[in-house]
Amino acid sequence: MDQESQKKAMLEKMKEHKKEVKTVRKIVFIIALIVIIVTAIIGTSVYFYVSSALKPVDPDSNKTVKVEVPIGSNLDSIATTLEKKNIIKDAKVFKYYTKFKNESEFQAGSYKLTKSMTIDEIIQSLKTGKVYRQPAFSLIIPEGLTIDQIGNRVAKSTQYSSDEFMKLVTSKSFVKKMKAKYPELITKKVSNKKIRYALEGYLYPATYAFFEEEPTLEEIVDQMIAQTNTVVTQYSEQLKEKGMSVHEFLTFASLLEREATAKTDRETIASVFNNRLEAGMPLQTDPTVLYALGEHKDRVLYKDLEVDNPYNTYKVKGLPPGPIANAGKESLDAAISPAETPYLYFLADKNGINHFAEKYEEHLKNVDKYIK
User: In this UniProt entry, which residues are annotated as the site Important for catalytic activity (predicted)?
Assistant: First the structure.
């Protein structure tokens, strides 16, 4: 090979080498660019995720959630509990944020927290042993109230009138909305034409804390229904075993609630009702007569027992079409687990003490002894 040919060969090799170098540089540049872009995307995603995790789970929620912090709990277990209770979005973010803020020494106890609380508010609550946020107002709904009585309670504590309350709870569109939201609780059974108010008995008796000064009326009622749903869900397995619907359960419990006195034995009264139902006897409970009359009277008269109404259990056998009041935990427990007795009759004396009887003759003697 002559000198000229050698030069050309060397030039070709140099050109090829330069091309390879350029190609390698391009590849390195592209890889570096990809790494930078991926890192930026991951960094941005992490930033937004952490930022989101530090915000309240639901800024508009007024519902309180009970959180137990046992003695000896560490930060990991507390963070996990808060995430399970849906008070925070991410346990790890909460843990790292708490360490970053150098917060520690959380107190054991029982807390009522809300999904609208910030991370800092939750931390302060756990440090001080009390709920850091104070509600704007509380609404107390006692056991045994009818839906119109609840409306009066709402009217006294809020800017809404009892008429506005009743208009909402009797609205077909609102009832339909609640059916869709709580399908296991509010079923087609509430649509029975014999029922006076579809949501009677579905507003749970409790103390409700509201953190907004003026929540909507729908939010107020929704919170009561949500609490009923939470409580009734605890009885799901037992209801399946008994073959009892939620509507029947609430109806039965409402009778116990209205028959209850401070000294009453709900489980034994429940056994009387069960025994009467099994024997095909009418329940003959006075509170259903009062509900049928639509009046609140101290004493039921004999003429009242003749009222022609599907709620009058003196004239109609079986349970009434629906609940006659809101039932509390004790009545719900008694309805699901009644005592086993042979009793078919009972009455309460002037001191609120119940007297039970198996035979009608024995019951008449109790009437003579304790009532007349």
Answer: 259
